[in-house]
């Protein structure tokens, strides 16, 4: 919403005759003196529009009235400053799975076909985002006027779907089909300038000129002709060639058995792209089938898991100034991200070179985030190197990101306790040390908690918010709200060894290293994880996290868990001792000097020589650790555990998280498999007693 308001300023939205019209359901409509009907989408009790079944049925009634008394033109726009429409109601999609989705989809298509056929000019005025069904609503109009800052996109692929209300044939019929397919296959958005260049938007204007732009669009009766490229793709051989290229590009990113939606989209365009009526029927059938797939059900669930984490940080944090102690890898990332997200940030470290590196890193993050010149300048202005720690006395929140050494951290807390202002929160970014131990001697322990970011901070969405025995409720609530305010997902977890994410992840990483010691090639180990659906193999991930961090966490966990922990492989200790700590050092188990490593290809014939329990040895320890965390109430529910593992580690979202994977596979089967692995490889695989409660 903030981006939109940057463009709109304090200007009221131009709603024409709809401004003072009474809202009926989700819509407001009025006619102006020129006979133009202004129809505003204005969903009650929310700041964001969605295109619900109810909204479409109400639109159908509006169109019937307009057909009976045809206006000079129809203008459709949003009455919400936040944007045009965020897409369909995700809850309605979830409810449709397993039912007759086709019938409801056909009803929705009939409504948008009716809008498209209305015998007067129709204009969609779009500010903010028009996504999914909102984009399809705009596509059913004759013209689209984009207000500066508008964007258009089809994010359905992230839910295991493709457009389902006419987007597949309307967008490929409007703009170059290869460009249209790219938008749908990737889920990316076309922002204002790109939308204009592609032909999605017919005009770009500022909010104060919307009324004039509408009048011009209404009087311009020339139909936009199809581009020559679109006509060329009307021939089957051209579509088939392009489809083969699209499949090859898609296969480089996702597997068809994991994410079928992009492949089905390519199929329906290749087969029916020259026939709109056939493509419409195929879109409905394909969407309905995908909606009933396990992939879509789990990705829709992941959407709601994200919403659940967001709701864990309600209210305002009242944190405007953040001071970070330690300008290493994590501290620099935390400081940069907080500044980018609008906080005033001071960063202290006795090493002034580290402070300089942190500022340069912040600049690179700004560039990667496409903040532009002004945005980068503002973010860097908010980030102040502070070698003497003057900002400590002004900060609302002090984040300690020092070395993983309890003695060093306690020394930092002694210093901070004498300088922090009353009411300020102290949070540690420790990844493995018990907060209860660190809290000894802390001034104001009720305002001391854990705030565990993951590396790289600018990319990892989850933050563990950790309560120790004396942490106050208000402190946890403020920290959770702070996470949400900086665009991150707070997971409230208990103060136990490894907390939640590292407790589940480190056995996975250690088992990979044990397999390497047994002689299994590292690229084959990574390939097994990728074939399961993990975003990176465990050996690659260990290099990315940092082998020194992996070693610290493993050593911390090895003496604190109920069950035996894998012996820490000598190879890990040797790499760390040699300074080969992974990606950040340019070399770990892989050589990163020439870019990311390539795992063994999926079709490698040598895979037949691999242990037949390879995948289970990697994945099932994660599931078992999650069951332990559930039993020990490290997190409050299976949903919270799955959410944390998906958004902190990328655990195969299409499988729904480790707990959902275990349930889908069958808890008894997983428990029996763990017992068999324990017999074969040792007690580290012994199933946790909590499996008895997973039914």
Automatic annotation (TrEMBL):
Taxonomic placement: Bacteria, Pseudomonadati, Pseudomonadota, Alphaproteobacteria, Rhodobacterales
Domain of life where this protein originates: Bacteria
InterPro entries per the UniProt record, alphabetical: 3-OHacyl-CoA_DH_CS (IPR006180), 3-OHacyl-CoA_DH_NAD-bd (IPR006176), 3HC_DH_C (IPR006108), 6-PGluconate_DH-like_C_sf (IPR008927), ClpP/crotonase-like_dom_sf (IPR029045), Enoyl-CoA_hydra/iso (IPR001753), FA_oxidation_alpha_subunit (IPR050136), NAD(P)-bd_dom_sf (IPR036291)
Signal peptide extent: none
Top enzyme class: lyase
Gene3D superfamilies: 1.10.1040.50, 2-enoyl-CoA Hydratase, Chain A, domain 1, NAD(P)-binding Rossmann-like Domain
Family from the record: In the N-terminal section; belongs to the enoyl-CoA hydratase/isomerase family. In the central section; belongs to the 3-hydroxyacyl-CoA dehydrogenase family.
Catalytic reactions of this protein: a (3S)-3-hydroxyacyl-CoA + NAD(+) = a 3-oxoacyl-CoA + NADH + H(+)
Residue ranges of every copy of the 3-hydroxyacyl-CoA dehydrogenase NAD binding domain listed in the record: 322-495
Designated name of the protein: enoyl-CoA hydratase
């Amino acid at each position: 919403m903030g981006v939109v308001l940057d463009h709109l300023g304090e200007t009221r939205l131009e709603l024409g005759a709809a401004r003072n019209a009474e809202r009926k359901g989700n819509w407001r409509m009025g006619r102006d003196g020129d006979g133009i009907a202004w129809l505003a989408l204005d969903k009650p009790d929310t700041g964001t529009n969605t295109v619900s079944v109810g909204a479409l049925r109400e639109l159908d009634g509006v169109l019937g009235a307009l057909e009976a008394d045809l206006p000079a033109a129809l203008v459709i726009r949003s009455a919400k400053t936040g944007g045009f429409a965020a897409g369909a109601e995700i809850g309605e999609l979830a409810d449709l799975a397993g039912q007759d989705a086709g019938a409801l989809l056909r009803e929705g298509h009939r409504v948008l076909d009716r809008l498209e056929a209305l015998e007067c000019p129709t204009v969609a005025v779009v500010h903010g985002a028009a996504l999914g069904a909102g984009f399809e609503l705009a596509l059913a109009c004759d013209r689209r006027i984009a207000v500066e800052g508008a964007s258009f996109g089809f994010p359905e692929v992230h839910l295991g779907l493709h457009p389902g209300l006419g987007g597949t044939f309307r967008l490929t019929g409007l703009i170059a089909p290869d460009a249209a397919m790219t938008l749908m296959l990737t889920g990316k958005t076309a922002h204002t300038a790109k939308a204009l260049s592609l032909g999605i938007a017919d005009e770009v204007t500022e909010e104060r000129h919307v009324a004039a732009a509408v009048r011009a669009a209404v009087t311009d009766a020339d139909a936009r002709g199809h581009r020559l490229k679109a006509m060329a793709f009307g021939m089957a051989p051209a579509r088939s060639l392009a489809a083969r290229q699209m499949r090859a590009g898609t296969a480089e990113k996702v597997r068809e058995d994991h994410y079928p939606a992009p492949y089905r989209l390519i199929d329906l365009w290749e087969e029916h792209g020259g026939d709109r009526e056939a493509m419409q029927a195929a879109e409905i059938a394909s969407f309905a089938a995908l909606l009933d797939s396990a992939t879509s059900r789990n990705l829709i669930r992941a959407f709601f898991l994200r919403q659940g984490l967001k709701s864990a940080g309600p209210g305002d944090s009242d944190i405007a100034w953040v001071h970070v102690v330690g300008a290493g890898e994590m501290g620099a990332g935390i400081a940069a991200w907080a500044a980018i997200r609008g906080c005033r940030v001071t960063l202290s470290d006795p090493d002034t070179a580290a402070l300089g590196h942190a500022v340069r890193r912040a600049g690179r993050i700004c560039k990667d985030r496409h903040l532009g010149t002004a945005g980068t300048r503002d973010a860097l202005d908010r980030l102040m190197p502070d070698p003497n720690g003057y900002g400590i006395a002004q900060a609302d929140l002090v984040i300690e990101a020092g070395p993983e050494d309890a003695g060093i951290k306690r020394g930092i807390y002694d210093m901070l306790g004498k300088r922090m202002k009353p009411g300020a929160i102290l949070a540690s970014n420790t990844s493995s040390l018990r907060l209860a131990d660190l809290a000894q001697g802390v001034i104001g322990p009720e305002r001391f908690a854990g705030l565990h970011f993951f590396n790289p901070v600018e990319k990892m969405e989850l933050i563990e918010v950790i309560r120790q025995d004396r942490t106050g409720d208000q402190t946890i609530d403020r920290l959770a709200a702070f996470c949400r305010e900086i665009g991150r997902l707070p997971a409230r977890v208990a103060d136990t060894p490894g907390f939640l994410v590292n407790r589940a992840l480190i056995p996975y990483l250690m088992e990979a290293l044990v397999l390497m010691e047994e002689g299994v090639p590292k690229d084959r180990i990574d390939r097994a994880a990728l074939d399961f659906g993990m975003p990176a193999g465990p050996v690659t991930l260990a290099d990315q996290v940092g082998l020194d961090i992996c070693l610290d966490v493993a050593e911390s966990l090895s003496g604190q868990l109920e069950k035996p922990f894998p012996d820490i492989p000598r190879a890990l200790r040797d790499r760390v001792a040699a300074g080969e700590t992974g990606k950040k050092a340019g070399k770990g188990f892989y050589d990163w000097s020439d870019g990311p490593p390539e795992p063994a290809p999926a079709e490698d014939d040598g895979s037949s020589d691999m242990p037949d329990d390879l995948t289970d040895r990697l994945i099932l320890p994660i599931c078992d650790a999650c069951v332990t965390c559930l039993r020990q109430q490290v997190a409050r529910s299976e949903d919270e555990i799955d959410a944390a593992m998906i958004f902190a580690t990328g655990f195969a979202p299409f499988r729904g998280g480790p707990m959902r994977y275990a349930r889908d596979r069958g808890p008894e089967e997983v428990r029996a498999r763990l017992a068999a692995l324990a017999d074969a490889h040792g007690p580290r695989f012994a199933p946790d007693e909590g499996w008895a409660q997973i039914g």
